[in-house]
Amino acid sequence: MVPFVVLVGLFGILSLLGRLFPSTHLGWLTSLRLGLGGMFLLTASAHWGKRRPDLIAMVPPAFPRRDLLVTATGVFEVLGAIGLMVPTAAPYAAVGLSLMLLAVFPANVHAARQHLSIGGRPVEALAPRTILQVVFLAATVTIFVAGKR
User: Fold this and answer.
1) How many domains does the chain have?
2) DSSP code per residue over 92-132
3) Nearest Cα to 106, choosing from 47, 66, 143?
4) 122: domain range?
5) How does DSSP classify residue 5?
6) Phi and psi at residue 33, in whole multiples of 5°?
7) Coil, helix or strand for 36?
8) Residue 137: is its pLDDT beyond 90?
9) Which of 116, 39, 50, 125 is CA-nearest to residue 85?
10) Is 74 part of any domain?
11) Quick check: is 11 in a domain?
């Protein structure tokens, strides 16, 4: 839920700043790109911190080298976040992040079904986790579609 709050909060603050100070050129698409970038930087930080063991536990046991997969997804999140901040690269970063969101969904399912926790907090049930994934995916797809116009 924290990533959602960060996304919505950054989007709202940046959109408001864009309205108050038009010379900043913070339109809705730029605000969405930067808000999503901030969200992915936040989620990436867990891949190397004290929450890392919890993320590794989220990966279904059928996947080999779960630790390496967590590291790779963290790197993809950082690279994707950086790409979102560069207007010409943003549509391509959004595609990569969309694919990554789809790829990590089995970990979200596993975490919800096994009632795992992240940082001592229980993960959300499958329905709310799925809704959040759909929202994040909708944001990345929106950036791709709007950025290609």
Assistant:
1) 1
2) HHHHHHHHHHHHHHHHHHHHHHTT-EETTEEPPPHHHHHHH
3) 66
4) 44-147
5) H
6) -60, -50
7) helix
8) yes
9) 39
10) yes
11) no
pLDDT at res. 33: 97
Does residue 148 carry a pLDDT above 80?
no
Residue 149: pLDDT over 80: no
Which residue matches tokens 């909060």?
A: 9
Structure tokens at 82: 């950086």
Residue at 92 is within a domain: yes
Structure tokens at 124: 């959300």
- Mean pLDDT of all residues in 118-139: 94
How much is the CA Rg of the chain, to the nearest whole Å? 16
Residue 16 lies in a domain: no
Alpha carbon distance 2, 33 (integer Å): 18
* DSSP at 63: S
For the cut 90, the answer to whether the pLDDT of residue 50 exceeds it is yes
Full-model pTM: 0.93
CA angle 132, 137, 138 (to 5 degrees): 95
